[in-house]
Design brief:
Elements: E1 6-11, H1 22-36, E2 40-43, H2 52-58, H3 60-63, H4 66-69, H5 77-90, E3 94-96, H6 108-115, E4 122-126, E5 129-133, E6 138-141, E7 144-147, H7 166-177, E8 183-187, H8 201-211, E9 218-223, E10 230-234, E11 237-241, E12 247-249, H9 261-266, E13 273-275, E14 282-287, E15 290-294, E16 296-297, E17 322-323, E18 326-328
Parallel strand pairs: 1-2, 2-3, 5-8, 8-9, 9-11
Antiparallel strand pairs: 1-14, 4-5, 6-7, 10-11, 12-13, 14-15, 15-18, 16-17
Length: 335
């Protein structure tokens, strides 16, 4: 295989529909991307669901349902317009995966169009690496799997959400086995850890075992969704939980006013988070020497989850307002 040489910035879970300063966080990340001349920018889902103007033009049937179905109801479309414009004006190529909240007010087809994605799952080759974007947003309904759309997963049992369908698994294995390059798996829901993970992760692990049996075809997996930072190894492959750019969701059981009352009235779900003072994202370089992750350190705004009594077992990795810098080997990873 060719020697990889690629750099990119990865971020996840901006949650424009919750955060009051999402545009400022996006600006920090884009400036960093320009500063280091990265090859592309990668997001791992839950950025925002489409604005009303977009839905009116492209999916009027969804516009009528927006206020009824969206989990985090948001009427601040000016912020969504600004962030989309910032990404487009930046000029650096952008790729991503669909997060569950990206379809809170629409279908997958509409969300893909909004984010400029060719399909809910797809692949692209850059810098001697094949990046494989997976779609983990399916609901088990008896013996079938149905797409997330219009927040239809909200009333489902945890065990019935976050699946990868058989056709996609077959496609994934074909993408890996026919790739001239090492592969990186991208997903919103976690695959490697055991919190908020997909429920048929063993099917993915079986593909990894077959693919890596004679040589290292899959070298890394990355996901968002869990709002924590950490790396675990599965089948010799590092699985990187990419922390949220904005916050750790701890739920309204732990409601805390951390900014002004005015801000919290405009952003009612903010009190159910433990926000980070700074935007979190990572700059990743993959070359012959390994996988180099340069993260960012911040702190919680107000009391930490631990101080509020959030149990340690609520997250797979310990909560932190950071993404640690680390170097991962291209060889088999133990532990």
């Amino acid at each position: 295989m060719a020697t990889p040489d690629v750099s990119f910035i990865v971020y996840a879970d901006l949650h424009v529909d919750i955060m009051h300063d999402a545009a400022a966080r996006m600006q920090v990340m884009l400036c960093e991307a320009e500063r280091y001349h990265v090859d592309f920018i990668l997001h791992l889902g839950d950025i925002m669901y489409p604005d009303a103007d977009f839905l009116a033009e492209h999916a009027p049937e969804s516009l009528a349902l927006r206020e009824k179905t969206a989990w985090f109801v948001c009427d601040r479309d000016d912020e969504k317009h600004r962030i989309r414009a910032m990404i487009q004006e930046n000029g650096i190529e952008s790729f991503g995966v669909l997060g569950n909240h990206d379809m809170d007010s629409c279908t997958k087809a509409t969300a893909c169009r909004y984010f400029g994605m060719p399909a809910p799952y797809y692949s692209f080759d850059r810098g001697g690496i094949r990046f494989i974007a997976l779609d983990t947003n399916l609901i088990r309904d008896g013996d079938t799997l149905i797409d997330f759309a219009h927040c239809n997963y909200r009333d489902s049992k945890r065990a019935d959400t976050n699946w990868i369908d058989p056709a996609q698994l077959q496609w994934l294995e074909a993408q890996v086995m026919t790739s001239p390059y090492p592969c990186v798996l991208l997903s919103h829901a976690a695959i490697g850890d055991s919190q908020l993970n997909i429920h048929n992760a063993e099917d993915v692990f079986a593909i990894i075992r077959r693919a890596n049996a004679d040589k290292r075809r899959i070298i890394l997996a990355m996901n968002g969704h869990v709002h924590i930072d950490g790396v675990c190894a599965r089948e010799g492959v590092p699985f990187f939980d990419v922390n949220s750019m904005s916050n750790l969701w701890i739920g309204h059981k732990y409601d805390t006013v951390r900014y002004s009352e005015t801000i919290h009235r405009a952003y009612p779900h903010l009190c159910g988070t433990a926000p980070y003072w700074d935007a979190l994202f990572a700059r990743v370089t993959i070359n012959s020497e390994g996988i180099h992750i340069v993260g960012r350190e911040s702190s919680f705004v107000g009391p930490s989850p631990q101080a509020l009594g959030v149990p340690a077992e609520a997250t797979f990795h310990a909560p932190s307002a950071s993404i640690a810098s680390r170097v991962l080997s291209l060889d088999e990873m133990r532990g």
